[in-house]
Write a structure and sequence with these properties.
Blueprint (H helix, E strand, L loop, with lengths): L1 H13 L19 E7 L18 H9 L1 E3 L2 E2 L4 H10 L25 H6 L4 E7 L17 E5 L19 E4 L2 E4 L4 H15 L5 E6 L11 H8 L5 H26 L6 E7 L37 H4 L3 E4 L9 E3 L3 E2 L3 H8 L16 H4 L11 E4 L12 E4 L3 E4 L3 E4 L15 H18 L9 E3 L7 E4 L14 H6 L6 E6 L3 E8 L13 E6 L2 E6 L7 E7 L2 E10 L5 E2 L3 E6 L2
Parallel strand pairs: 1-8, 1-9, 2-11, 3-12, 4-5, 4-8, 17-19
Antiparallel strand pairs: 2-10, 5-6, 6-7, 9-10, 13-14, 14-15, 15-16, 18-26, 19-24, 20-23, 20-26, 21-22, 21-24, 24-25
Helix pairs in contact: 5-7, 6-7
Length: 586
């Protein structure tokens, strides 16, 4: 409801100016720069040469670093989907229904108002190219959440279960506004190429382009010309591929920045570079009880403790560069005040002269005073992150309460960051008052989040926007047992099951097709019988020996419910159907 009201109000307000080109007019219309956000996947703070890494080659990012305001104390969630939901909404990720990367807990509540919707209501044309990871079905897809044009991989990365089966980073099939389309080239090259096409097409009007690459997320696949130079210098093979993926990103960043300059867009484009969590493979194992790697180059983590998924700073402190020459943002300046992903939406809104979402309590605040060097009286603040990769959040699980000086980790470990940036010395027993104050901050935050813990974000079935709806086991809810979230699990035939939360958008007759393999593979269902339970419907049927699917025709009533499937194998074991199509008939 709040999204509908916000959209109506904003469109009524900006309708007269939507057709204006990307030029300055009256004072109220001078704040419409283009917005371009690049967010890489699993690249940590130390995986940029300009931050002190003596091995990695990132000359274009280093140049952007020199030209930008750099937020050196900028934080995100420790994993993928949560960061994305907070970035899009300006609200803590758990509040949006996102605290995991699978299990239906990576689906963002569709009532959230996204940056794309805020800017679209301001007259911007919006495009998203890369990894969405906030839902692969209506109404959670990027094209349902404010983006005019989209081209993206499925799930949390190339080779995951919702992704087009058989993708391997090269010449893959992705989804253009939900429809599969074959692409040529390496995945990162494709995302940047599509973004540049979109920018060129819309360069005479305000645009918002979001490029969340899936690289350098694993599997670590890249052309040898990028990884071999690192291996030749003694970098371990996995890290060499990881670095090679980043070097390829850097190459594309150079191409992008060159085109902005060529098209006379550089001055009036707000260019943001950031990453979604700490490094995944930029630090060799061996610290804090992990199996040591061979001697040689061991990576670089800018002196921080922890990596991706960690509650320590190495898990959630990331690069954040902002450049806008026309808006006097840039010039190689550091900002050390505490900031986070939740601040991006209100910051972008202010830079563009847009209104924050009507009736929405944002957790973030505009960083414009910091970016423009006019924050002498910037107030102290407390920010919080946690990692909850489970069905229901657990109190004090992998959490950090942050101020400019302090980190309270897991509710009991206290670190003085200026004195101990590596978080080596727990000083909780020396600062009982600080610990209690931060514990109280956490308690209030946790209580504010708790109302959503038992809520679910439902996948829509029966909508014209996606008919049939194609669901995968990536989004199963389950309180125990594995979830087959990648294609390796599908190939191995993991014996697992779970349920989807679905929203039947209209009464009617439906056709529900169960598969063990994705439809395009046309392979055996490997079952002797199949069962479907959705709402009050519970049906079972025998399956032929050569069958590739089992189809049920059912009458469904409008409303939210659960759907679960069972396939019984010839040896009597059962698993859920990994892939299900639900088609509205009439």
């Amino acid at each position: 409801m709040r999204k509908t009201l916000f959209t109506l109000i904003c469109w009524l307000a900006v309708a007269p100016i939507v057709a204006q080109q990307n030029v300055s007019a009256a004072p109220s219309e001078t704040l419409r720069p283009n917005i371009l956000i690049i967010m890489t996947d699993d690249q940590g703070y130390g995986d940029v040469a300009a931050h002190g890494n003596k091995m990695i080659q990132t000359p274009n990012l280093d140049e952007l670093y020199k030209q930008s305001v750099r937020l050196t104390n900028f934080h995100v969630d420790p994993t993928c989907s949560p960061t994305r939901s907070a970035l899009m909404s300006g609200r803590y990720s758990t509040r949006t229904g996102v605290w995991h990367t699978i299990m239906g807990r990576s689906l963002m509540d569709t009532g959230e108002v996204t940056i794309a919707e805020v800017l679209k209501a301001r007259g911007y044309h919006t495009g998203m190219f890369g990894k969405w990871h906030l839902g692969d079905n209506y109404p959670c897809r990027p094209q349902d959440q404010g983006f005019d044009e989209t081209f993206y991989n499925g799930g949390g990365g190339v080779t995951q279960t919702p992704d087009f089966f058989g993708n391997d980073y090269f010449d893959d099939t992705y989804f253009r506004n939900g429809t599969p389309e074959k692409a040529e080239g390496y995945c990162t090259d494709v995302w940047f190429r599509e973004a540049l096409k979109f920018i060129e097409k819309n360069k005479d009007r305000p645009f918002f382009v979001y490029v969340p690459t899936n690289a350098p997320h694993g599997p670590f696949l890249v052309d040898e010309k990028y990884s071999k130079p690192y291996r030749d210098q003694g970098v371990p093979a996995t890290m060499a591929a990881f670095y090679g993926m980043i070097t390829n990103i850097d190459e594309n960043m150079g191409l992008l920045m060159g085109k902005l300059k060529e098209w006379n867009l550089e001055e009036n484009t707000v260019l943001v570079f950031m990453t979604d969590n700490g490094t995944a493979a930029g630090v060799a194992r061996g610290r804090r009880g992990r199996k040591p790697e061979p001697s040689g180059w061991r990576g670089f983590n800018a002196g921080m403790r922890g990596q991706k998924g960690s509650e320590y700073d190495g898990g959630h402190r990331v690069p954040f560069f902002v450049r806008w020459p026309a808006g006097e943002i840039g010039g190689g300046r550091d900002v050390s005040e505490l900031a986070a992903h939740i601040d991006v939406l209100p910051t972008i809104a202010e830079l563009c002269g847009a209104e924050n979402p009507e009736g929405v309590a944002l957790d973030g605040k505009s960083l414009v005073p910091l970016l423009k060097g006019a924050a002498a009286d910037w107030p102290a603040r407390t920010l919080l992150v946690h990692s909850q990769r489970i069905e229901y959040p657990e109190k004090l699980r992998k959490c950090a309460v942050m101020t400019d000086r302090w980190r309270l980790v897991n509710g009991k470990e206290l670190y003085d960051m200026p004195a101990d940036p590596g978080q080596e010395a727990n000083v909780a027993d020396q600062h009982a008052v600080v610990v209690k104050t931060l514990q109280d901050e956490y308690e209030a935050w946790w209580n504010s989040l708790s109302p959503v813990f038992d809520e679910f974000v439902a996948i829509g079935i029966g909508a014209d926007e996606e008919n049939p709806a194609r669901l995968t086991c990536h989004d199963w809810h389950t309180e125990n047992g594995p979830v087959p979230w990648n294609q390796g699990h599908i190939r191995s035939g993991v014996m697992a099951n779970g349920w989807w939360v679905v929203d039947v958008v209209r009464d009617g007759h439906y056709e529900v097709t169960l598969r063990r393999w994705p439809k395009e593979m046309d392979q055996s269902i490997e079952a002797v019988d199949a069962r479907l339970k959705i709402g009050d419907v519970d049906q079972k049927q025998a399956v032929g020996e050569s069958a590739t699917s089992a189809t049920f025709k059912v009458a469904l009533k409008k409303g939210e419910t659960r759907m679960q499937t069972w396939l019984t194998t010839p040896d009597g074991k059962t698993r859920g159907a990994y892939f299900v199509e639900v088609r509205y008939l009439e």
